[in-house]
Design goal:
Layout (H helix, E strand, L loop, with lengths): L11 H4 L5 H9 L3 E7 L4 E7 L6 E7 L15 H17 L4 E5 L10 H12 L2 E2 L9 H5 L1 H4 L7 H14 L1
Parallel strand pairs: 1-4, 4-5
Antiparallel strand pairs: 1-2, 2-3
């Protein structure tokens, strides 16, 4: 470990590899809301966050466990559930008057076509403007879950469409 009079201990969240402060500063300088997308094995969380001096303020939030309120009775850790979670967050954001956001994926691995970008596509389809390259999004049929219908007998694309329509009806 480095020592001496010029050594400065990094911030705790940087040492824990939880925050990239250079990326965060660049996002905050944009002056836009941050579209924060986080995933776990079983869930996806999408938030629109605004900077406040005393701490960030979450304006809009959606969690994949909320999909059950709209009729989703499938697993919540897959691509269609991530898209629907982003779509739900986007509908709530547009309802609150949020039109643009800057994408904040944090320190997560960002491979094209993953659940992270499915959630971003859901935000965009709901009406939130986010500057992204369309080549990073999964195919439309994968976002609707057509690839899952091949090997899951109880999954159908109609379920996806019904949930999406229920969200539109509420917002």
């Amino acid at each position: 470990m480095a020592d001496g009079p010029n050594y400065q201990v990094p911030h705790r969240r940087r040492r824990e590899q939880r925050t990239d402060y250079e990326q965060r500063l660049a996002l905050l300088k944009s002056g836009q809301y941050r579209a924060v997308v986080r995933r776990s094995n079983n869930h996806t969380r999408v938030q629109l966050v605004d900077y406040e001096k005393d701490g960030d303020e979450t304006e809009v939030s959606a969690h994949s466990s909320h999909l059950g309120d709209f009729g989703w009775d499938r697993h919540t850790g897959n691509l269609p559930a991530s898209y629907l979670t982003g779509y739900l967050a986007g509908l709530r954001a547009v309802d609150d008057g949020i039109e643009t956001a800057a994408l904040d994926l944090g320190l997560q691995n960002t491979e094209h076509g993953t659940r992270l970008f499915a959630a971003v596509k859901g935000l965009i389809d709901a009406g939130v403007s986010i500057n992204t390259n369309p080549s990073v999004f999964p195919d439309e049929d994968r976002m609707r879950g057509e690839h899952m219908a091949d090997y899951h007998d109880d999954y159908s694309v109609e379920t996806f469409e019904d949930v999406k329509e229920a969200m539109e009806d509420e917002y």
